[in-house]
Amino acid sequence: MARVLLIRPGLGRYYSGVGAGLAVTTSPPVNLATLAAVLDRAGHAVRVWDLEASPQHDLVGALRSEAPDLIGFTFRTPQWEQARGLMALARNLLPEALLVAGGPHASSLPEQTLAQTSLDLVVRGEGEHALLALADGEGPRRVPGVVGRGFAGPPAQRVEPLDDLPLPAWSLFDLGAYTPRSVVARQTPTADLESSRGCLAQCIYCTKAVFGRRFEPFSPERFVASVLHAKDAGFRSFNLVDDSFTTDLARAKAICELLIAHGSPLPWTATNGIRVTGVDTDFFRLAERAGCRLLAFGLESGSDERLRAIGKGATTAQARRSVAAAQAAGITTVGYFMLGLPGETVQSLQATIDFAAGLALDWAKFAITLPLPGTPLWAAWQGRLSRDFDPGMTGHRPPRDWFDHPDLSWEILEDAQRRAYRRFYGRPAWLRRRLARTLRGRAYL
Ligand code: B12
């Protein structure tokens, strides 16, 4: 039996400076909850520290007293600095412990992650089989998915079928730490839940380093069991973290029907965004009855030419229809837009701003496009990056010296972002929609 500690670093200043922190609610990480459940089922002693929710004040003392044999770190590109600091501290205090990292950043840049940290190993891709093998004492070179100094095994063994996974180990988290830090009136704590992994689309700004280009579903029965389990654990809502919940629309509808049959046990959201293609009015109505309160859509651009260029596989007409259908079903709608896509012009930026203002959206976010490691965009802009990624990046705006946009100046991009927000939120129509929702008691987020 190994003693394993799994750590998610804090957010640092990612959401600083733009008021975005007000709109972000932290949930326990479903990745560590699932990895922990797998280890626990096999008889290992697992602990989880989520430093995003509960900063650990005496890290040194806690690491010494826990003295784990294996420490697993999860992080995304924006947590790089925090993660690196923790790895160095753990290495200093516990020279014998096996330090392992996984997640989308480490999976995208495994060799570089090893070279710039005190980690022993990186796990590329889905982590469940590999982490269990390492905890069981298997030699790292023999474990698929493991990359070490001077060796890289074959790709990680996929988890198939997903229903074989144990339910997330929520009991390892202090749910009291996940009550709202924000002004947003969501029902917290909220559980991040997966009903599927992966996505078949090939958008150039998205990394496939973890799940590849495939779609792997949980069965509706197993997914609904995870909802009931989350409710029993004390969660008051859930958020779907799927890349593409509606890839198989019949399955998505079956999930909604099963939730309805169980009395729609928890209100839920899909803040990561669903696709505007392959959905219909019937789906949105079912989702609403099943407890869906908020759906986000990855809309990206108001220019069909840009949508084609980024491999989105969706059109502005489909976006209009789907957003309107969700809104008509009574669901709060959020649109995510990207400014500064490759080939972007002043005209296409304006098309996006106008398009957003004409949609039935409650909320819109306008991000300046980031070329993140592991994405085709990152590869395409190689000659334009001053560094692979920006360790100090915040969620609002990339630093000007990180990369050189091929088509537009920073002044134009930042000005478009300011104008987009002013236009979207400055419309009387937006205020009317908000007021109407609030009066009907349906304002969610
Ligand atoms: C939900 C989500 C969010 C939520 C997070 C909610 C939360 N409480 O965590 C919100 C909306 C806040 C968010 C924000 C952002 N996100 Co996001 N998000 C996701 C999403 C859709 C799901 C994450 C998830 O839970 N997946 C399910 C779990 C099971 O998968 P997983 O975390 O990858 O874990 C598996 C493996 O990676 C591995 N693993 C993970 N950790 C570890 C650790 C060890 C030790 C081991 C062995 C294995 C291992 O095993 C796990 C199980 O198989 C992913 C896409 C995706 N489907 O994963 C994007 C994704 C993580 N996000 C991404 C991005 C870009 C962002 C933003 C930067 C967007 C922006 N411009 O602001 C911000 C960053 C915020 C931040 N500070 O980290 C990218 C990250 C790319 C990168 N290089 O890091 C992803 C991968 C999307 C993509 N495909 O491009 N996001």
Report on this structure.
The structure is a single chain. The strands form three sheets. The chain has a seven-stranded mixed beta sheet, with helices on both faces. A six-stranded parallel beta sheet has the order 8-11-12-13-14-15. Strands 9-10 form a two-stranded antiparallel sheet. It contains 15 helices and 15 strands. It is globular. It has helices spanning 30-41, 59-66, 80-93, 104-108, 110-115, 128-135, 220-233, 249-261, 281-289, 304-309, 316-328, 346-357, 376-380, 410-425, 428-439, and strands at residues 3-8, 45-50, 70-74, 98-102, 121-123, 146-148, 151-152, 190-193, 196-197, 216-217, 237-240, 268-274, 292-300, 332-339, 363-368. It starts with a strand and ends in a 6-residue tail after the last helix. The longest helix is centred in the C-terminal third of the chain and has 16 residues, at 410-425. α1 (30-41) packs across α6 and α12 packs parallel to α14 (410-425). The protein folds into two domains: 3-152, Cobalamin-binding domain (Rossmann fold), CATH 3.40.50; 185-439, Alpha-Beta Barrel (TIM Barrel). With 445 residues, the protein is an alpha/beta fold.
Which helices and strands, and how do they pair?
Blueprint: E1 3-8, H1 30-41, E2 45-50, H2 59-66, E3 70-74, H3 80-93, E4 98-102, H4 104-108, H5 110-115, E5 121-123, H6 128-135, E6 146-148, E7 151-152, E8 190-193, E9 196-197, E10 216-217, H7 220-233, E11 237-240, H8 249-261, E12 268-274, H9 281-289, E13 292-300, H10 304-309, H11 316-328, E14 332-339, H12 346-357, E15 363-368, H13 376-380, H14 410-425, H15 428-439
Parallel strand pairs: 1-2, 1-3, 3-4, 4-5, 8-11, 11-12, 12-13, 13-14, 14-15
Antiparallel strand pairs: 5-6, 6-7, 9-10
Helix pairs in contact: 1-6, 7-8, 8-9, 12-14
Residues 11, 14, 27, 29-31, 34-35, 72-74, 76-79, 100-105, 108, 123, 126-128, 130-131, 192, 194, 206-207, 210, 241, 243, 271-272, 367, 370, 372-374, 395 line the site of cobalamin (B12).
